[in-house]
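Action item from last week, closing it out:
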Amino acid sequence: MTDKLETAAGSSCPTFLFTDIEGSTRLWEIEPQRMSVALARHDASARAAIEHYRGRIIKVTGDGVHAVFDDPSDALLAVLRLQHELAAAPAAGDLALHVRCGLHLGADEQRGGDYFGPVVNRAARIMDVAYGGQILLSEAVADRIGDRLPPDVSLRNLGTVRLRDLEHPERIFQVVDPRLRTEFPSLQPLKPAPNNLPQQLNSFVGRKREIAALRERLRDGRLLTLLGIGGIGKSRLSLQLAEQVLDDYPDGVWLVELAALRDASRVVSEIGAVLGVRESGGQPMIEAVAEFLRERKVLIVLDNCEHLLEACAVAVKSILQRSTWVRFIATSRGYLGIAGEQSFQVPTLAAPDLAAAIEPDALIELDAVRLFVDRVAAAKPGFKLGAGNAAAIARICSRLDGIPLAIELAAARTRTLSIETIAERLGDRFRLLANADRTVPERQRTLQALIDWSHDLLGPKERCLFQRLAVFDGGWTLEAAEAVCQGAPVDPDEIVELLGHLVEQSLVIMDADGTRYRMLDTVRHYAHAKLVNEGSDVAVRARHRDTYVALAESALPELKGPDQGAWFARLDLERENFLAAHAFGNRADQPPEPGVRLIDALCMYWINRGLPILGLRVTEETLARPSLAHRALPRCRALLCAGQLCFVMGRYSESIDHFAEGLSIAEEIDDSRQVAFFLQQLGLACLGEGALPAARQHLREALALAEQMGDKREIAGAASHLAMVHRLEGHAERAEPLYRSALALARQLGDHETTAIADLNLALVSIDLGGRDAAQPLLVEALEIIDRIGARRLAQCAIEICSAFASAKGDWGTCARLFGSAKEQARRMSMQPDPADEASLAIWFAQARAALGDVEFARLSTAAERLTLEEGLLEARAWLDGLSRQFGRVHVS
């Protein structure tokens, strides 16, 4: 029947066919012998059909084929013949195989007997969405075939479908043949699932069988651990797998990178940070994360677990026991060791057999060779595998055992060495490896030899810089490298060039925007061991500590100025380096003064970024040092930080203890400035405890002392805090002029954050006093500032006050939603509202709850708890903008 289909003449573009056997992995498990026979029959039928209709098999892809035809009619004839033969097989007692097929046409790049590019990718993705036994065509193929179909064969328009990893959707047609199965489930359009998977800057090569097997395992189990030596490609494979199953997880696929993490106690916090779950004052973080995930269908990728195995195992087990739909992929050099764990030993890439004949067309079919050629071509456009370089490439890929990282490092060297020279040097290095100590684990010998080779190729100054860069955690800037890594034999003005050499040799990675650098974790550990062996570790780490203390101190005044948003973002990037500086500075053999300077400079950062628990832990570790027991200024400053962090978490009693001790020390050493700080903070803490007379006394003294010193910033702070006392005593009219004074001073200072705080305070007082028109522009200005500087704590406060404003305007629904959003953000950030704000806000929330009824208020507020902080801000801003359009914008006076 199919022979009656007429072929089209003069087709200018090749037609690509992809096939795959549905459920093949399971068939291999339950019917291995019959599957072996059936697969051989399938391969023979596929080859015969393709060759009969003038097609060429490009490659065998797992249990399917990739073929190319000059004419789409030939492609369809071939695939119909294959499906007819497979459909007849069960009648003869053979195992039934259900093959899915996809066809697409277009011009793509041909290289080494293979095809590459978007047309081939689209053909493969069309096959991906087919069911076993189904033949799918792209619109381009359907148009080219037109009305030249054989009798009884037709095309069914299945509509437009979004294909995985492709930006543009495709109109899909099904081939309907009455001798084949014609009814299939509807194709499911792919919808983007939320995720934080990084965009890869180079192509993923090979691993198709591994991906297929891993997808099956992930469907059957809840924890899949990818195992292997460093450089084997565990991380890249996990990301490719996560990307391919993205649409199976409607609540998101989330990558948690653990390589830079050194503190095992922070594993759960890192997971929570990626998911948007914040530390909560009274609730363990693991409970908050588990509760958040309880009913969500989520895939979490834990990358680089090997140095945190126990902590990762405890976290994963706790989450899996309390949730239904969560799945984990972990990459590690060792097992997590918990019940239900499925492990997969990541193999090396298929490499050449040097005993076999070296043929370029055969070599390019091997994944190791394809990876090497792909990476060299990226560095040297126009590079191709050919007869002249095939033998050297085969030696490189074989002697590197198909280890992806080794191959990529070798490819990077082609910028400065010929392929033949690289092959010769690898030969020397592997002879050395063969003589290595056999008591050392093989995985360490293989990787050690790889990086030794790269290290030995460095010049003395490059080698020195490479080792010193290992002290950075989470990456670094060029300026940081120049500050930390200078010193004989490396001059500061040489570092930019030397660093460039390390990037070219793939020992250092430059981020896409070119502003930061980092090392692969394996390479970093190697470099650090070399640094320790050289005896330079302590000196370099001391420079690292001093550099980041200086950065934190230089940032502190900027965090109160017009560029504070940019500075907060800069500190975000250096968080791991700050923690590393703290860890080194807190060693018993190090002086306490740099550590105190660091926690003092970072206190505002921890509060602004909603990380008070982490900040308090670091501060308390510093305070606990015996050398800080002396009642002097360093202890005084550390107590101020500890008290402020306790205060924002609502731990008022502890904050009072810290502030009281600090105040007594400040008075003993006769430091008026410190006395003013502590009086103000102690007054706030007393407010939290409800001790109004004590709070009033401390804040009046603080205001008087600030005015005596002429410190406008402290005057503004003390005035604002004294206004809170008046509000709690029911005298909002006394608070208003103090807030206006604070706002005027903040604007004079150009302190955006303090301006936003004053705006919010004055807006809430205006609402309480009935001046609702005055509140709106204040809130608009506050939101504009918050958006500019990225102050997360103030953002939560702003949403909360907008909620009260909505209640005052009679918009009960908006009040309920913003209330739910603000409440959830406060919980995530472990933040406690100011006592005066809490009392005032409660009245407006109660008014909205009474108007809506408890059930409706709870429904609206609970629904808004799923909003991110940014989404809550957008909703508040949109509501305020709506008021402006309705009544006209009012300018702030």
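Closing note: DSSP finds 38 helices and 16 strands in the chain.
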